[in-house]
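Schema walkthrough. Field components (list of strings):
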Amino acid sequence: MDVSDLSLAPKFIEHFEGLGIESLYPPQAAAVEAGITRGDRVVAAMPTASGKTLVAQLAMLSADGPALYVVPLRALATEKYETFSELPDVSVGIATGDYDAENESFDEDDIVVATSEKVDSAIRNGASWVEAIACVVVDEVHLLNARGRGPTLEVTLAKLRRLVPDQQLVALSATVGNAAEIADWLDAELVRSTWRPIDLRTGVYDDGTVTFDDGGRRTIDPGDDPPTTAMVADVIDDGGQALVFVNSRREAETFARSLGAREFRTAPDVATGIREGATTSTGRALAEAAEGGVGFHHAGLRAEHRSIVEQAFRERDLAVLCATPTLAAGVNVPARRVIVRDHERFTGEGYEPLPVLEVHQMFGRAGRPGLDPYGEAMLVATGVDAAELRERYIGAEPERVESKLDSREALRTHVLATLAGGFAENRSELDDLLSSTFFAHQRDPSELTDLVDEVLSYLDATGMVRRNDGLSATDLGRLVSRVYVDPLTGAAVVEALGTAAAMDRVTTLTVLEIICDTEDMSTQYVRTEEAGRLSEFAMRNAEQFTKPVHDFEGNFQSWLATVKTARILDDWIAGVDPADLDERYGVAPGDVRRLAERAEWLLSATEVIAEHLSDGTGTHRPTDPDSDVEYDTVLERLQETRAALLDVTAE
Ligand SMILES: Nc1ncnc2c1ncn2[C@@H]1O[C@H](COP(=O)(O)OP(=O)(O)OP(=O)(O)O)[C@@H](O)[C@H]1O
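Field assembly_structure (string):
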């Protein structure tokens, strides 16, 4: 089937042909036959790099109104936004900023790219553009499997279906075992394909030989080198590039440094580009590796550095990229050879094997259509049994996608949001909404009953939900849902604000402690040698903290992580530069930025809650009603801190 055969406006056909897309790949043709251009609901389960983006575009461009493209990660949102913005005369909006969608409107856009959190937030805020959407495309729908994100996605899809029942839905997925079950849940037709634009061989390296799934072998003699180094050198000798997956940021950097020293290629321009903006040890290490034609890629990199590295690799200025597994999820940087060096991940308690699905996504990055004759992906069996590794990952079926909605965290948030958004006014309506989730499709929805009871009691006790004749969210509950924080965060903030309001000295550190001591802040790890210093700091500044430092109840060690995080933010606001923060706290620049963004969101949420408490309309007062609680000082401090944070972050 050719692009010119499609009933698309000529300008779009020209656009695609200009990109070298003339005839459809077989899975794309199958998706068209299944009705993506006729408004039908379709789940397309296709391998990495088999052209899912075009499937999405065909659906969105033929839809009878605006379209919404839902992505799991912000990095992917930017990439898709750029791709769709090139479509002629199509206005594209992007919603990825953190969470609160109150002031955003996409009424004028033809395509909106958003994370699932952002769509959830827009629904909670009653955003009008959501109900005008004629076609929803969900990218990486298999992430229904993910803790945290998965429940948000399934509840959001259930709500969208309530809001706009005849909306078209197209879900894109990696090839997973139970794609049919996902399609069944969504009342969609399944298009399932294993076709790839370029041949892929997968194999395991063991003792000087890679044995492939097709029975072929390749001898790679490592000599005195580590096997992965030899495997990289081998493909570069052959004119290809290598993408090496390792299991930690540190490993990515260390391995890139050792490969960079080999000078497979020189890329002085890339190195200069990185060095210009590099103030930290991470940036300098990246520039140094780039000198030798090697890059590394992980979540600690600054966004600018990440995109320089991605582009330099695509343009073949870099010969090798050492990456953590996050790169496997979507970002488009294919290479002739993918080497999965580490197939286990540290979970905090020990090492666990990577899921098959994740390893297959890494494999799928192998082979650049038009450039490479084929792609090859290999695992390295060092210290493990090669046969076992082969059995686990080569030719194995990926795991089933399973709903993660049966968790206290997920239900706490989504039960409150469902009540606050008016999707349910009593228990049976709440159960009814939950019965349209993926969880209910896979399991017996009554398995949720006890957890929902427990969550409702908690929301009642914290003044967020009222249980009279029916169920309703209180003003506080509605606010907490709207500002998109976990109800635990909402309750902690209410309590801490009450304490702060009665304190003599409320400083920036006080408000930073309040927001860092919440479920929604990811606090920084405290190294053993730091604990003493942090503890002394807390003692010295006890009067600025809402927690009783000298008479602490609960887990002091974990509160020290709160103090550390608050201090990093305090220093950042005071103008300490990223290199010094790295030195003082061992925190990478990419992480500081993420912390600052999260802090900005939590400060604004806390501000809204403080305003609510101060005007006295609250149904829940944190302190003795007879006491004279004055929230003005803490509110002022919150506003100042947020303004200062916005200032330094914008620089
Ligand atoms: N029919 C086609 N003919 C030629 N090239 C195509 C065709 N469809 C897609 N491509 C090209 O193939 C490449 C991979 O496509 P795309 O990024 O859509 O893959 P994907 O399935 O979305 O992969 P991922 O798993 O990374 O999301 C792109 O460069 C795209 O332009």
